[in-house]
Amino acid sequence: MDLLIWPDWPLALGALFPVAIALVLTALVGEAGGRFGLPRVSGYALAGLVLGPLVLGWFDANDLAGHRLVIDFTIALVLFELGIRLDLRWLAANRWVVATSAGEIALTFALTFGTLWAVGTGTGIALAVAAIAVGTSPVILMHVTNELRAAGQTTDRLLALCALNAAVSVILLKLLVGALHGVHSGWQLALLHPLYLLIGSVLAGAIIAAAYLGLRKLVDPATEQGLAAMIALLLAAIALLSALRLPTVLAPLFAGALIKWRDPRPHLWPQQFGSLGGVLVIVTFMLAGAAVTAGELFAGAGVGILAIVARAAGKLGGAVAFGPPSGLDLRKSVALGLALLPLSALALLQAVDVRLLYPEFGDRLMPIVIAMTVVLGLLGPIATRRALIHVRETRRGETS
Amino acid sequence: MSLENFASSRALSLGVELELQLVSTHDYDLVSSAEDLLREMARKDVPGEVKPEMTCSMIEVSTGICSDYARVAEELEALRAALTDAARKLNIGICGGGTHAFQDWGERRIFDKPRFHYLSDLYGYLAKQFTVFGQHVHIGCPGPDAALYLLHGMSRYIPHLIALSASSPYVQGKDTGFQSARLNSVFAFPLSGRAPFVETWQDFEAYFNKMSDTGVVQSMKDFYWDIRPKPEYGTIEVRVMDTPLTVGRAAAIAAYIQAIARYLMIERPIRLSEDDYLVYTFNRFQACRFGFSGNYVHPETHEHRSVAEEIEDSFARIEQHAIELGCDGPLGELLRQVREGRNDAAWLRERHTGGESLPEVVMDQCGRWMGGDAM
């Protein structure tokens, strides 16, 4: 009898089966959260933590590195969509929105840095955490706002501020960490590197934007072949950006904003892409939990919570100080500050990348960032959701 | 509650109200930004008034009491400029049009004001479906009986006004085949339609008291008639028009109504009769459905002609009055468009059938209204 035609016992299912189970579990936890009026992303984040080394240990840091492309692609896609929401004409017409952004970024950075420095984490760590704290999670904000079909003054500002603070956070962290480790020996390099990051990303963004607008003439982005073309475009962009040692998140963001600037027509293809994007977001959260270990989480918890409080004060303070002159009332300004709280995969990856380059420094940075992203990945989406419901900017789901 | 006395107003004085759409500049769907826009507008010095409407994605602007076309045009233009300025600051679009082309009525929110909540509780989904946008024109009347004569006389011109202002071919993402689909939403209300045929204010009061005794109505506000008397202002209010895509067209239509009113009041050309209303709903439907090419049945001769021919004739009748009122210029332009068969509904259809998606059409609508384009 030929044994090869009969299955082995126990069944050899390979690596695919656990991934499938993990995916369905993540989706189900999100769904369960949705039934209780919680944002689905909070459920995905919770499932990710349970599947990771913290509880079940199905995934670990190696899985995160191995599937890094999926996460990078998801974040690039979300930032591209976010960029399209960033209307530069509006920023030019209402400078107070730019002031709100600058205010919340500066305040968040200063308060977070000050708090950490005061409790003695050392200048380097305090600066790095502050730079990461400046950003808000684009993946969470886009997911929560899409889930509620949110639209209105708070939502518009929320997404604009997120686009700007995410970009600033990425640049700031690269600069600070580079400077701290003497990469920029000599002032020429210290000047050239930021210029390269910024101008390189803008140029790359311009190329992506031009390619997108060209493609849009050939295929309708709302069709499946159009969707395939757009995905290919972003994949090519990520490959190119990695080769140029440029951050993969900035150029897609700039590209989106340039597209809206060049062609103010409604660009609604991302809504068609909704189902694919939704799956990618679930996968991203499922994998992000792999970076979280119990040891690091508890090691960073104390300082992390201080950083969270300082960061919240900065976001809230900036929004409340500059929201009213930009055309928001006080209630919506407070909602804006609270809605900016989520922190997640992007922050985690920023810290992971730092650790790759500077393991010793990264080992001290990581626990704090892990603690922050765990708390703000779970509770941040709830804050955003409640804030948007409170100011009645949802078109779907719960009403206040 | 009894009917208030008919206030005195200057004959032929003019007031215009426009209900406007607030849309997101991202997807061009309606957006709940009325509250924010009203707050911005409160800081500006503009003529007339800017007020909330039933749902949070609409606002109503109104001129003060104007004497002529020039004043109406000037005030509407000032309101447009101020609103455009505020809208750019808030990153929203403002546009005309009787309906929003693709909004989902289930997603609308009722503006937080007791009267709107009362209406929403009473009418249920009709209130949210009533997210439609009209132009209302008030005409000052020397006295209540003259107001009723004007009301019934003006009823003959309802099809003309519908065809001239029609700008709502699309509802919920579909071409309805109508030029003004907005009025179909108005018909759904139990107290819509036409005013009862009474010729004296005494009789009108008697009618109102009877209705009030039934408990069906509390005030004139509960009637959604095409034309209704507004005793507190001393005016009649013509309410059948869709909000045009430009303030220029809105001003020209107001001028047309004023010229008709002058013609009716001074020449008293019609002997009113209840039978005038036999053809009323038919004519009205034809104008909503087919615009200028709709069928118009003359209430007295029962002759069938097109709405366009009727409008052309009406211009000849009121020409002298238009010159007296100083609005022959804009009326000439309106007539030219009638001859070419052009109105806002046609403009919207041209764009969509020409390949633009509905969100892109709404974007162009915003461009026309906010840019202050000519009619």
From TrEMBL, chain A:
The chain crosses the membrane at residues 12-29, 41-59, 65-84, 96-119, 125-146, 158-183, 195-215, 227-259, 279-312, 333-352, 364-383. The keyword Membrane applies. Keywords: Membrane, Transmembrane, Transmembrane helix. It holds the Pfam family Na_H_Exchanger. It is a multi-pass membrane protein. InterPro entries: Cation/H_exchanger_TM, Na+/solute_symporter_sf. Residues 25-385 form the Cation/H+ exchanger transmembrane domain. Its main location: membrane. It is found in: Membrane. It comes from the Bacteria. PANTHER family: CATION_H+ EXCHANGER DOMAIN-CONTAINING PROTEIN (PTHR43021:SF2), NA(+)/H(+) ANTIPORTER-RELATED (PTHR43021). This is Sodium:proton antiporter. It comes from Aromatoleum toluolicum. The lineage of its organism: Bacteria, Pseudomonadati, Pseudomonadota, Betaproteobacteria, Rhodocyclales.
Automatic annotation (TrEMBL), chain B:
Pfam families: GCS2. Its EC number is 6.3.2.2. It comes from Aromatoleum toluolicum. The keyword Nucleotide-binding applies. The lineage of its organism: Bacteria, Pseudomonadati, Pseudomonadota, Betaproteobacteria, Rhodocyclales. This is Putative glutamate--cysteine ligase 2. Belongs to the glutamate--cysteine ligase type 2 family. YbdK subfamily. It catalyses: L-cysteine + L-glutamate + ATP = gamma-L-glutamyl-L-cysteine + ADP + phosphate + H(+). The keyword Ligase applies. It is an enzyme of class 6 (ligase). It comes from the Bacteria. Keywords: ATP-binding, Ligase, Nucleotide-binding. ATP-dependent carboxylate-amine ligase which exhibits weak glutamate--cysteine ligase activity. Signal peptide: none annotated. One of its GO terms (molecular function) is glutamate-cysteine ligase activity.
